[in-house]
Amino acid sequence: MALIDIPAFRNRIVAVLGLGKSGRIAAEALQESGAQVRAWDDNEATRNAAAARGVPIVDLAATAWDDVVALVISPGIPHTYPAPHPVAALARRHGIELISDIELLARAQRQPRWIGITGTNGKSTTTALVGHVLRGADVRVQVGGNIGVSALSLEKLGADGIYVLEMSSYQLEITASITFDIAVLLNVTPDHLDRHGGMAGYIAAKRRIFERQKSPQVAVVGVDDEITAGICAELQRKGDQIVVPISASRRLSSGIFAADGTLFEAQGGDARAVCALTSIATLPGRHNWQNAAAAFAVCRAAGVEEQAIVRGLATYPGLAHRQELIAEHHGVAFVNDSKATNADAASKALGCYDAIWWILGGRAKEGGIEPLAEFFPRIRKAYLIGEAARDFATTLQRAGVAHVHSATLEEAVRAASRDAAGAKDRHRVVLLSPACASFDQFPSFEARGASFRALVQDLVRTGAAA
To answer: Active-site residue 424, yes or no?
Structure first.
């Protein structure tokens, strides 16, 4: 695999902290670019795996920092709150900048256009959707970032190309050089508050996606929650860039919005219907209508013709672990929504189905599942897994929702499948939408979703739900 060349760091010493996929690829790209790399990961197995690929392993807590020019730090490693990693603190004491692998890409690739997409929920779907539409319109495009594709493994692009990057709040904090030609903020609800020192810090991190933008650069901003509506109004008052509001809950006098399952483009108070969204099976629910509105706004700003955008929306294949339909078996649909790692994300799927056998739990986020109470009448039974099971059971007990503790995801899938198959409801759904992080039982939400997929496929193959 060819990696991005980073000439700015040739013959310079660069430290790399965190050797998961993106960190290891960053170390390898820097090495191939002629940098002197000092790399470390607190996990011995991860260190050994990187060393086997030729990455130089150095204990960064014990090395000299006088000649180090940068610390490339993996986004998951805290550098401020709740307490900085000791190596991050050491680098700061020596006045060394902390940067991301996306920052390395930005410094290496100056010619292409940049599209950045963030938000508490929906950013992966919107990123994938934008990439799909642009590819269908014959635009040279590379899609990566937080969506799971390491920035430095992307192809090199020229002035005719576009990088479409999903940006987490963690990545935005350590990516200073990119001024996005088109920047998207979908929504903001409480998440990762420990890493940002509270809600104000989290909002500030998300808002960084619009930094340094000047017209004709474009800010696409959701206005369906109070926080993003306030940011949109602030950007419009300042007038630095072109601002395009988007909504999936109300009609706009200017911008892109979805109403009753139809996408509209509005200018000067006049709204024009663009296309129906209800017929797109891979974009179910109001939250996906917001994603579609954002993608339409982005691709219009990128110069794609309307017909090509509509065609791209209609042919979008969907994204794994985001309301992914795994199978329909004995009248029951099995839906993998493992990406729903907080209550707000889970609410999107819960709002799409009427008779739900709900698998949830894991490592809980702040706020628990109390905000989901409006969807509890849709729950026929809940199957609780992981660390959050006891607390979630208390909430469901108070609300009168039938529930059971399942020791494992496999136990939950089998019980939910059996119960749903014996019910009389129409449109029955076994839904994995955990409202929790996965890290108590799985290394990632992807691993959790893959396990669910395999379990369901095994049920279908053996007919166990009959």
So the answer is: no
